[in-house]
Amino acid sequence: MMIRLDKFLADMGYGTRSQVKKELSKGSVTVNGAPVRKPETKIDTEKDAVCWKGEPAAYAEYEYFMLNKPFGVVSATEDKKEKTVLDLLRSDKGSDGGTGMRREDLFPVGRLDKDTEGLLLITNDGELAHRLLSPKKHVDKVYYAEIRGKVDEEDVRLFARGLDIGDEKITLPAELKIINPGEISRIQVTVREGRYHQVKRMFRAVGKEVIYLKRLSMGNLALDEALAPGEFRRLTEEEVGRLC
Ligand code: URA
Known about the structure:
This protein is of the alpha+beta class. It contains seven helices and 15 strands.
């Protein structure tokens, strides 16, 4: 793939485009052994050897991160008022020292509500995102939730049948597991669609209220429980392979 040198370096997290240009003008970057100062220089990512301050810099076309989305952050790339999940990735809470997070083409795969926590995949791989989000693919999404009201076997049956949540069609069958029934019930639910506020609306349809919601997995990808809310890490090659 051919790419401008300043974009190559900014995508790989060496700085913003202007920071990268400053370093280029100092002669800190070599291509195939020779200093290159022009930001517009075209790089062949497969053949050219780029070094940043003497260290080899490789280019990854696609990048994949899992974020444990915290409460209070919106699933968007930019927002005028609210903190976004991409703001978190631009911070230093990654497990690999901050590389790769400044690239401008990352986006969250689908949305979690502002008050929902848990697994959010962030990538620049549009095709993968499309496959995971396609309504035809019915990718399983597993959530842990705390519900105001006693969740019982009748709810399990209603979820398994599909619920009228006010859309044109009833929901696809969802698997509801009761972990601990009570005034506040703890449950796990697997849904195969990604409708707006789906879990909350399904519980509302059976007269109950979600008071805490966390996504545990999406398809074959499970949240790494070692990640505290707000932390993220790159997917391993094996995890990426399982998603593709
Ligand atoms: N269902 C919801 O109601 N909210 C989410 O954030 C995800 C699924």
